[in-house]
Amino acid sequence: MRERDGRSEKPRKVVVIGAGITGLVAARALARACERDRRPVEVVVLEASPRIGGKVRTESVDGAVVETGPDSFVTLKPDMLELVRELGLEKELIKTGGDASVSVLRGGRLTAMPSGMRLITPTRLIPFAVSPFFSLGAKLRMALEPLVPAKRGHDDESLADFTRRRLGAEALDSLVAPMLAGIFAGDPEKLSVRSTFPQLLEMEKRGGLAKALWFGGPKTAPKGAGISTFMTLKGGLSRVINALAESLPPGALKLDCPATAVRRHEGRYEVVTPRGVFEADAVIAASPASAFADSVEGLDPELANRLREISFVSTATVTLIYDADTFPVKLKGFGFLTARGEKTTLTAATYASSKFPERAPAGKIMIRAFVGGAGREESAEAAVMRIESRVREDVDRILGLKGVEPVAAKTTRWIKANPQYNVGHARRLERLTSCLKSHPGLVLAGCSYGGVGLPDCVRSGRRAAELAMPAHRGKHDAVHAGLA
Question: Which CATH superfamily hosts domain 116-216?
Fold first, then answer.
């Protein structure tokens, strides 16, 4: 407690639920605001599991750095790159390899996508025209895209409907559906274009996708030595998680401490856990929406129901490590996506040792395979050994490995861990915001609501810290609520 204008000022207590990257960023931002602005804040971070980081998890397998969750972050959104620099980890940044091409598995064969593809639209005419990736009919249909009128009205639309309307069915099956399976683990027939790629709607209003890209100029990665569109850390992304945890006040992190209930008592919040009750002036919920719904059932049943409207799907990652001396094929590019209708367990695969060669052990080939997603969850929820066996069969067949045995493997299941921004997601967020007006000081943050990438999560965590603090020094009892 410190003196302020002759009066003692009590520390504002903030409880952060969830020690994934969003929650840790929010807690760090609050701690820094306390130091910078000399505003007394006490922060506690409650994590239900015995480890921090959420889906960001780096492991060492046979001497190799293996990411079982995200393996990199995009620099087109600067938030994650800025955080890495703030944490003093800039020297550990590594960029991608030189060949950034991506193929798509169609009809059992890998076909390289045309160079110059940006989002779902070609930006270079000649590579697009000569590429065998699209049929002649599909190329003609896509070439007519600038003539397609913009949709009228404000009704939400699925990405599948948007793509068919502007680019045709083949572009959907061969390009958009595989891409969305890799990014959102979602079904394009259900995913909302407004909530996943709102920039496509803005481009449509500016005369079409091609016109907006060709004349507006494609957005590029931040300039600077050693910066590529995708980046990671040599020691793995868990280095960021550990640095965030180390930046927090001693004792702020509470592991194996799930929030079983959030309630109000005499104008403050009480967060109930097996290790006691934590009082708070503000609560930042950075856990998955489905998990937090159970915690607020007693506080606000309608809020809990709204949170449960956001669906989640299961995925799994399988990393296979081979001896380069026995590997019979030369891998090209960063990996491949799987077109709709292919008879394979895989939704995508990344050649990790080619994507980030600086991080791969000498003499090793690393392949990261992805399984599951909307409509394919059963394959990701199977027993670990079954998942790995199916993935190995598919990789052998697709790449022609002819039974070459990996020297090591790592399989991780992510059960109901991937939020789906299905049609109507924006409206669901509006209803959540309406519920939150009755609960000042309660903030929802993280990938359940507005962005699944690491930069999105970092931005959400920072915004959550702002919402949990008083708006004005002269009104230090006014705490804002909302979606971060």
Answer: protoporphyrinogen ix oxidase, domain 3 (1.10.3110.10)
